[in-house]
Design a protein that fits this description.
Blueprint: H1 3-24, H2 31-38, H3 42-54, E1 58-61, E2 64-67, H4 69-92, H5 97-107, H6 113-122, E3 148-149, E4 158-163, H7 169-177, E5 185-191, E6 198-202, E7 205-209, H8 211-214, E8 218-219
Antiparallel strand pairs: 1-2, 3-8, 4-5, 4-8, 5-6, 6-7
Helix pairs in contact: 1-2, 1-4, 2-3, 4-5, 5-7
């Protein structure tokens, strides 16, 4: 495959992953949201999304763009490689968690099916990545977005963290420092009124975070 073909394929996969991630979060994948997710202009995002539509990889409706059956297959493959790479980097190579997502993004486009299959075996087929997101082994598996988030917790409730944001290294480092990681139990002390801070305790002590950040942390 020529260099420009590789670049075009990687760009296509990036957009399909963006639509997948937004659908997973329950966020309508509009042009502006896809552009914001990728850090690109709305004009660039609109042009590429139209190309993917022409290739029948996405379809549009009143809520924005959504993955077609074929687009979902490609997106699941990309996300699976990404999250297996994260597991490899953190669990085998001991790369710090805050750096795992950025590094794994470099791998998601180049891991072959053979290496992917071997990674799954060596890693004992993990169900989730280090940030808590499910690894889609079925190419036809729909993105999951029925979740409860920390800002929905109640006073004196005990919760378990399921997922944390993955892309922002400084944010992941901060959450790691205050003990907010997948699988960790938190005790909610109080939820401030009018979108006030959420006070909670973890293994590292008592902490407070704002509603905006809490809305990105999935719990059960």
């Amino acid at each position: 495959m020529h260099g420009h073909d590789i670049a075009r394929t990687e760009r296509m996969e990036m957009y399909l992953k963006a639509v997948y991630q937004l659908q997973s979060a329950g966020t309508p994948p509009t042009v502006s949201r896809v552009a914001e997710y990728l850090g690109l202009s709305a004009a660039s995002a609109s042009e590429m999304l139209k190309r993917l539509d022409q290739q029948k990889l996405i379809v549009s409706d009143n809520d924005g763009w959504h993955l077609s059956k074929q687009g979902l297959k490609v997106a699941n493959q990309v996300v699976r490689r990404l999250r297996l790479a994260e597991c490899m980097l953190v669990n085998l190579l001991e790369i710090p968690l805050p750096h795992a997502y950025t590094e794994a993004c470099k791998w998601e486009h180049v891991i072959s099916p053979e290496v992917e299959a071997r990674l799954a075996v060596v890693l004992k087929r993990p169900k989730i990545c280090p940030h808590g997101y499910p690894i889609p082994y079925d190419d036809n598996e729909d993105p999951v977005h029925s979740q409860t988030f920390l800002h929905e917790a109640k006073d004196n409730q005990k919760v378990t963290v399921c997922q944390i944001p993955e892309a922002d290294e400084k944010l992941v480092s901060y959450l790691e420092g205050i003990g907010v990681l997948p699988g960790v139990s938190l005790t909610i002390k109080s939820v401030g009124p009018f979108k006030g801070p959420i006070m909670f305790s973890s293994k590292t002590g008592d902490h407070a975070i704002g509603q905006e950040l809490a809305s990105q942390i999935a719990i059960k």
